[in-house]
Design brief:
The protein folds into three domains: about 130 residues, Rossmann fold, CATH 3.40.50.20; about 150 residues, 2-Layer Sandwich (D-amino Acid Aminotransferase, Chain A, domain 1); about 70 residues, Dna Ligase, domain 1 (2-Layer Sandwich), CATH 3.30.1490. It has eleven helices and 17 strands. It has a seven-stranded mixed sheet with strand order 6-5-4-3-2-1-7, sandwiched between helices. Strands 12, 13, 14, 15, 16 and 17 form a six-stranded antiparallel sheet that branches. The chain has a four-stranded antiparallel sheet with strand order 8-11-9-10. The protein starts with 7 loop residues before the first strand and ends in a 6-residue tail after the last helix.
């Protein structure tokens, strides 16, 4: 049946094998509640922590309840059609002992996966092989943006200036540790230690002196053998949303947000982002108009430097001496009720349902294959 004669089928994929599994589930719950049921038919596909793909059940609640984080833990198993013809994604249920049931083709995939094995170009590559349209950045932009070290190199080449940093690979940490410790001293204290390919501040530590450095590096290595050590920036945290421009126009940027959190929090960590009800968003931030314009310009520049598509959130620091310091880009920002990305766009005139609709329609209009 032609798409024009039926609802558009949207496969919402969430969960995944990364440490950001729960945040992906929360994002998916919020997005699925906002998708217009009159226009779209949602096929909810969860990826369990062990890598199983399942048709998620409607009885599961993908939200934080009583401090408990949600996860994909049940549903009918799904077989991935690696022999599909381009443009088809004929998903089939595959529970042992059951007669396989075809779920039918989907028109577009909304991959709400955060972190590795989803936001890093892996699922994007699978969908490219199948010739299926999907929301968000392509393989290269996803992979480079996920790796903070390469992401900074590309954005520096475009003229953006991050804080001083050092990349620490696991083999160098064991073979040449003293050199690394000497280089960290040159960055000054405190420093932030973070996995190079993770998000939601998972595995991130703020370290005040060398005594705690080794433990922090090894904690980050539990999430990624490649670690980033960054000089701390004295400044407020600013974020800006970006959407792919319509009809070939340059990307659109939202009003930025200034993140405010309790002074008893050492930095904007996982608990502060998702579990602390004292978190505040100032949209727009109380900053000079020239600074807001500079943040928006740099956000769009990062989006285009990495050849992103669909959407992104770009993070900065604004220092007391008036500098805008680039921090990082996120090609699949959170859409949880506590997330800044949809709040920025709502303040900019695009409410949550309209934002989701724009992302889907943008993905449907773009061609498959090389672009």
């Amino acid at each position: 049946m032609p798409v024009s004669d039926r609802k558009i089928r949207v496969a919402v994929v969430f969960g995944g094998r990364s440490s950001e599994h729960a945040i992906s589930c929360i994002t998916a719950g919020s997005v699925m509640a906002a998708i217009d049921p009159a226009r779209y038919e949602v096929v909810p596909i969860g990826i369990a922590r062990d890598g199983r793909w399942v048709l998620a059940t409607g009885s599961q609640q993908f939200a934080i309840e009583g401090g408990r984080l949600p996860e994909v833990d049940k549903g009918r198993a799904i077989a991935l059609p690696f022999d599909s013809r381009p443009g088809e994604l004929g998903l089939t249920t595959a529970d042992p002992g059951d007669v396989p049931a075809t779920l039918g083709d989907v028109d577009v995939v909304l991959p709400l996966l955060h972190g590795v094995y989803g936001e890093d170009g892996t699922i994007q590559g699978l969908l490219e092989l199948a010739g299926i349209r999907y929301v968000g950045a392509g393989v290269l932009a996803s992979a480079v943006s996920m790796d903070k070290a390469f992401m900074k190199i590309v954005c520096e080449a475009r003229g953006l200036r991050p804080a001083p940093y050092l990349v620490v690979k696991k083999r160098d940490w064991h073979a040449d540790r003293q050199r690394i410790l000497d280089e960290v001293e040159k960055l000054g204290w405190p420093v932030f230690i973070k996995p190079a390919r993770a998000g939601s501040s998972i595995g991130v530590s703020k370290v005040q002196d060398v005594a705690d450095l080794e433990a922090a590096v090894e904690a980050a290595q539990q999430h990624d053998p490649k670690v980033l050590i960054e000089a701390a920036v004295d400044g407020v945290e600013i974020e800006c949303g970006v959407l792919e421009g319509m009809d070939g126009r340059p990307p659109d940027t939202s009003l930025p947000v200034q993140i405010r959190y309790s002074q008893d929090r050492d930095f904007y960590d996982f608990e502060t982002k998702y579990l602390d009800d004292r978190l505040q968003f100032d949209i727009p931030p109380d900053l000079p108009e020239s600074v807001i314009k500079e943040v928006q310009w740099q956000a769009a520049a990062a989006f285009e430097a990495l050849e992103c598509e669909g959407l992104a959130r770009v993070d900065f620091f604004y220092t007391p001496d008036g500098r805008v310091v680039f921090n990082e880009i996120n090609t699949m920002p959170g859409f949880t009720p506590a997330s800044a990305f949809p709040k920025m766009w709502e303040a900019s005139g695009i409410d949550y349902p309209a934002l989701v609709d724009r992302l889907i329609q943008t993905a449907l209009r773009r061609s498959t294959g090389l672009r």
